[in-house]
Amino acid sequence: MNVSVKWEGVYPALLTPFTADDQLDLPLFEKNLHAQLDAGIHGFIIGGSLGEASTLLNDEKIALLESALGVSDGRVPVLVNIAEQGTKQAIARAHEAESNGADGLMLLPPMRYPADSRETVTFFSSIAQETSLPIMIYNNPYDYKIMTTVAMFEELAKLPNIQAVKESTRDLTNITRMRNAFGDRFKLMGGVDTLALEALLMGCDGWVGGLVDAFPQETMAIYELAKAGQVAEALAIYRWFMPLLELDIHPKLVQYIKLAATATGIGSEYVRAPRLTLVGAEREQVLQVIQTSLANRPVLTTVH
């Protein structure tokens, strides 16, 4: 039985841990999931950009889904990301996710092809009509070169299972545009770590996080304090967190965040080719950021 997706709170975009011989490291994956649940996160997202989706085989995605469903055991929803070049393939992945127990989907626009507005709306709509699962549209024109505009969401609003938006435009005014246009029709989830507190204060319902993969407690503290109106306390943690959060907006975010998760004991550095693990001065520079932050880790404020 599917877990209801409320589209609020903190949803880690999960890393995919590998072994030294390039197999899925499911025990380490599950260790990270338990750390996330212990911190109080609200949902899991499998196979996103941070999960190295483009390098995963379909059966590996299913193995990760089954593992996450087992750990979650109905406590939080488990979402599968769909990132495909073709509509037919995207529909097939949606069917697989649904038949294997996923609670919801995150949809990226078509990969590689710079689809226009009509093509993008048709792509999203075609997938939504082929599944009963609730859907979050990933709006990230910065990385994927396709902007899902308010006018496009007016069309998508006709489909009841398109329920949420991962807001990664890097334009905070877009949150207000969406609220002005649609009220609460779409749940909004901030999707850029370095704008996360701002997005929450502008009215986002939740945070799809990256550094949460290494620092779940701190991520949850910021979310809970922001939602409780304890902005000064949230801001103090956020300012400490910012050098780490900036690791999320780099082309090597996977390697950087995996290094952070290794430092906190809930990840490993292994990545899948063509990515390579960090070496030399770059690795030392990122480690310095991580180690400096760990040395100054804040005492977390509780909500009152």
From TrEMBL:
Q: Which organism is it from?
A: Spirosoma linguale (strain ATCC 33905 / DSM 74 / LMG 10896 / Claus 1)
SUPFAM superfamilies attached to this UniProt entry: Aldolase (SSF51569)
Which InterPro entries would you find in this protein's record? Aldolase_TIM, DapA-like
Where is the catalytic site? Y138 (proton donor/acceptor), K166 (schiff-base intermediate with substrate)
Spell out the family assignment given in the record's similarity comment: Belongs to the DapA family.
List the Gene Ontology MF annotations in alphabetical order.
N-acetylneuraminate lyase activity
Q: Identify the Pfam families for this entry.
A: DHDPS
The protein's name is Dihydrodipicolinate synthetase
- Keyword entries, A-Z: Lyase
Q: Name one GO cellular component term.
A: cytosol
Q: Which annotated residues bind pyruvate?
A: V208
Q: What is the lineage of its organism?
A: Bacteria, Pseudomonadati, Bacteroidota, Cytophagia, Cytophagales
